[in-house]
Amino acid sequence: MNKKRLCLITLIICINAIVSAQGVAIHPGATPPDNSAAMDIDIPGKGTLLSRAALTSVSLASPIVNPAAGLIVYNTTPANGNVCPGYYYWNGESPGQWIRMDNQPCSSPTVTCQTGWNITAGPTTGNLGCVTFLYRNNPVTYTTVRAADGREWLRQNLGAERVASSSTDYLAYGDLFQWGRWDDGHQVIERLGPSSTSLGNNSSASVSTGGAPKRPNDVSPGPDANFYYNGSISYFWWGNGISSDLYNGTTTADVTAGRGIDPCKQLLGGSWHLPTGGMGGEWATWWAAEGLTTGAGARLAAFNSTLRLPASGWRRPWEGALSNVGDEGVYRSATAHPSVGNHAMHLYFSNSGGWPEDNFYRACGASVRCLRN
User: Fold this and answer.
1) Checking CA distances to 356, which of 61, 270, 308, 331 falls within 20 to 30 Å?
2) Are 98 and 79 in contact (CB under 8 A)?
């Protein structure tokens, strides 16, 4: 028998495809297709694998050329915050669009971010997303979350290796920024343990400001700037500030004696930014929306919130050492103190209480969380 004919017969026997006026059936037996089906596939223990594609946007047909209305693909790659893995069909309208078949936001309370993903957190409190950006000139992907205030926040501190698994998860502590400073290297902290106040060898160096306070335009350009300290309060980093000083620049071109770069704007772009502080600020609004206590137990309450804030401690401005690691959390805001020139507003919490409208020296190193409009 001709080998090609033998192969064809063998293939037909193996798949048991039955063609009738009703349609095509692919069954292990001789069951005809259902009368309502053009194709009826039923192989126990097996699924049907449809075509896969790496969509780039819901509004672009690419990589499919001239898709027909109703065409179904399984998207394999998240992109642009509005495309995530799952089944999509082309609606065939003008202009056309890929429609996710489960009609759900491109996020999930259980999403596990993978390198390179960008997924906007869904509209429900607790929905998670992902964002990819460069930190210390290296690509990182962080988890985001829709908080109780309705805003999307990073669920990780800048410089953290992961989302905190406890209030004292030192791999989630991250780096510590002086007020008005950006991702210039001064903030880098190598953590050595849940309550360790020792600086690892890869931490940024501490350098005295000398006989005068330093300001943003005094920072030397480059990726490895120093953490500034001084034993005299008068000579602290930005120790001669005023209430109109700004922490909202985007690039080094924005830097002046009275304006620093917001690291959230610098790194994530778009509408990402440092939260505002003080009465009525974004930290206070978030704290109230989450229903967090200002009394005893605030440290654990901050961790159990949607943001999973760890007690990362802070860096002292008078010699550059770490302080209260595992006991306190100090989180930067973009807001200068309204009357004390060397202070800025921030979120503070400890075992004894939480104060979303607190303030302290601009020169101390504090954690950074970003949010976007």
Assistant:
1) 270
2) no
Pull the structure tokens for residue 341: 């020139």
The pLDDT of 48-55, averaged and rounded, is 89
Mean pLDDT of the chain: 89
The percentage of the chain sitting over the pLDDT mark of 90, rounded to a whole number, equals: 68
Residue 12: which pLDDT band, with cuts at 50, 70 and 90? very low
Under 8 Å between Cβ of 57 and 82: yes
Neighbours of 43 (CB within 10 A): 12
What confidence tens digit (pLDDT) does each residue in 156-188 have? Answer: 999 999 999 999 999 999 999 999 999 999 999
Q: What tokens does 198 get?
A: 């020792």
Instruction: Please give the backbone phi and psi of residue 353, each rounded to the nearest 5 degrees, phi first.
Output: 175, 175
Q: How would you classify the pairing of strands 329-336 and 343-349?
A: antiparallel
Domain ranges of the chain: 3-41, 49-104, 170-372
Query: What is the spatial order of strands in the sheet that 17-19 belongs to?
Result: 17-19, 24-26, 39-41
Map residue 280 onto helix, strand or coil: coil
Q: Please give the pLDDT value at position 93.
A: 82
Are the beta carbons of 354 and 369 closer than 8 angstroms?
A: no
Per-residue confidence (pLDDT) for residue 259, from 0 to 100:
98
Query: Would you say 111 and 119 are in contact if contact means Cβ atoms under 8 Å apart?
Result: yes
Question: Do 159 and 312 contact (CB within 8 A), yes or no?
Answer: no
Apex CA 266: angle with CA 265 and CA 272, to 5°?
20
Residue 217 three-state SS: helix
- Segment (H or E) for 286: helix 282-290
Q: Among residues 42, 7, 6, which one has the least CA distance to residue 24?
A: 42
